[in-house]
């Protein structure tokens, strides 16, 4: 994959506005409990690797994270007013079904500028257990050298009281657990397909271990 040098880097000020909006919405509709936010490096490039079981995972992390976040979001969400809003708050549109060089360039630009990139490494909403990772996370981590911070979002979707499928019941507790940052690469600087495959295996082990620890910690 090669990045597009002409891709504009999204606004960090916009992402900060999105963070403030997210804080109001998430604390207004649910009861977030944030654990381990102090583990997020205060400066420099960071990649959040977030499990994806609920439709609110992205907005939840965006709202409660200690730094403004630029999430890679499927292009299907960028429709009409919502699309303009997402762009305005610094989020990145990505085509999940092709090599989206514009999105790649924007994401690498965020990290080159010392920003925070948010990724759902499973690619789409599912069980949220990090069981199947795509290679994109490894590519961005190895290419940029940015540390990965695992993030587990844990809420109940099997209880009564849900107004919308795949959302935790309103006013229920949602736990967001940040883990220790780690490097995906092996220190060699290699970016070959084999190196990325090996990095993906290392990442999966780290993310799975973090999720297990988060579940023990929160009783989920």
Counted beta strands: 7
Report on the biggest sheet. 7 strands, mixed
Structural class, from secondary structure content? Answer: alpha/beta
Fraction in helix: 25-40%
Poorly predicted sequence stretches spanning 5 or more consecutive residues: 1-5
Radius of gyration: 16 Å
What is the CA-CA span between the terminal residues? 38 Å
Number of helices: 6
Proportion of strand residues: 15-25%
Sheet with the most strands: spatial strand order: 1-7-6-2-5-3-4
Secondary-structure element series: HEEHEHEHEHEEH
* Oligomeric description of these chains: single chain
* Coarse morphology: globular
**Mean pLDDT rating:** 86
Structural description of this entry:
The structure is a single chain. The protein is of the alpha/beta class and 220 residues long. The protein is built from six helices and seven strands. It has helices at residues 12-29, 57-64, 80-88, 101-112, 136-144, 193-218, and strands at 31-35, 46-50, 70-74, 92-94, 116-119, 148-154, 173-178. It has a seven-stranded mixed sheet with strand order 1-7-6-2-5-3-4, sandwiched between helices. It is globular and about 45 Å long.
């Amino acid at each position: 994959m090669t990045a597009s040098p002409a891709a504009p880097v999204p606004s960090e000020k916009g992402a900060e506005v999105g963070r403030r909006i997210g804080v109001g919405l998430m604390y207004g509709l649910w009861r977030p409990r944030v654990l381990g936010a102090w583990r997020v490096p205060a400066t420099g490039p960071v990649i959040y690797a977030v499990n994806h079981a609920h439709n609110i995972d992205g907005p939840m992390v965006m709202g409660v994270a200690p730094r403004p976040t630029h999430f890679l979001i499927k292009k299907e969400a960028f429709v009409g007013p919502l699309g303009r809003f997402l762009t305005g708050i610094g989020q990145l549109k990505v085509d999940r079904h092709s090599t989206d060089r514009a999105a790649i360039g924007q994401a690498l630009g965020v990290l080159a500028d010392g920003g925070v990139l948010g990724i759902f490494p499973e690619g789409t909403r599912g069980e949220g257990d990090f069981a199947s990772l795509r290679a994109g996370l490894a590519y961005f981590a190895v290419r940029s050298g940015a540390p990965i911070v695992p993030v587990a979002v844990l809420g109940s979707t099997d209880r009564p009281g849900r107004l919308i499928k795949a959302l935790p019941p309103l006013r229920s507790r949602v736990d967001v657990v940040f883990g220790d940052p780690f490097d995906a690469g092996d220190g060699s600087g290699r970016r070959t397909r084999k190196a990325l495959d090996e990095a993906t295996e290392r990442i999966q082990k780290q993310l799975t271990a973090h999720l297990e620890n988060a579940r023990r910690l929160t009783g989920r």
